[in-house]
Design a protein that fits this description.
Mean pLDDT: 75
Number of strands: 13
Structural class: alpha+beta
Number of helices: 1
Helix content: 10-25%
Largest sheet: 13 strands, mixed
Length: 199
């Protein structure tokens, strides 16, 4: 009799534990599902760089330029650029402005067509490059950065901001590709490939 009572009691305890275990498991599972439903994934918009290209350079030219369009999801700034030393010795961010005729010209290089490029030295160590197209004279000068307002496409183009390649190892030829590493104040470094085109 005692053995039967003990067996029954053991069976009841085991059954209770089994039910408690199942209940706990169901509760945890339900809790996990609820937590999963509440969790959302936010994908931050990324900085976008499009239409990267470089202008073909005539034989004998030691300077070139890269153009592209940048759209940043947040306020940022382009603060630097570089290309492999197998392409050019120096890479700078430049802007094109009206030339100051008082600057002294030191070197003139033919850019093809009616365009001439002249390297000029102003007061101090700053070096600028002047392009004369017909009767209009424009100067390309280095800048520290280019502001990138959030959501606004900023175009680096001929006659405006551009990436200047100085001391080219050899002239840029149509079909050639150049890896350009851009450095941003917030987004860090991004590398794009610019194709050399006629222009």
């Amino acid at each position: 009799m005692k053995t039967t009572t003990r067996a029954a009691a053991a069976g009841l305890v085991a059954g209770a534990l089994l039910l408690a275990g199942c209940g706990s498991s169901d509760s945890t599972s339900s809790s996990d599902t609820t937590a999963a439903k509440k969790t959302t994934t936010t994908v931050a918009a990324e900085l976008e760089i499009t239409d990267a290209w470089a202008r073909q350079s005539p034989m004998g030219t030691t300077a070139g330029a890269v153009y592209l369009t940048i759209t940043s999801p947040v306020d940022d700034a382009l603060v630097g650029a570089s290309v492999p030393t197998s392409v050019a010795a120096t890479t700078e961010i430049h802007e094109t402005v009206a030339a100051d005729d008082s600057k002294m010209s030191s070197t003139t290089e033919a850019m093809g067509g009616d365009t001439e490029m002249t390297t000029t030295t102003a007061m101090g160590d700053s070096t600028e490059t002047t392009m004369a197209e017909g009767s209009e004279s424009m100067t390309m000068q280095p800048v520290d950065s280019i502001e990138l307002p959030a959501g606004e496409a900023v175009e680096l183009k001929p006659g405006g901001y551009h990436i200047m390649l100085l001391d080219l190892v050899k002239p840029l030829e149509v079909g050639q590709s150049i890896d350009v590493t851009l450095t941003f104040d917030k987004a860090g470094e991004k590398t794009v490939t610019a194709e050399v085109r006629e222009g």
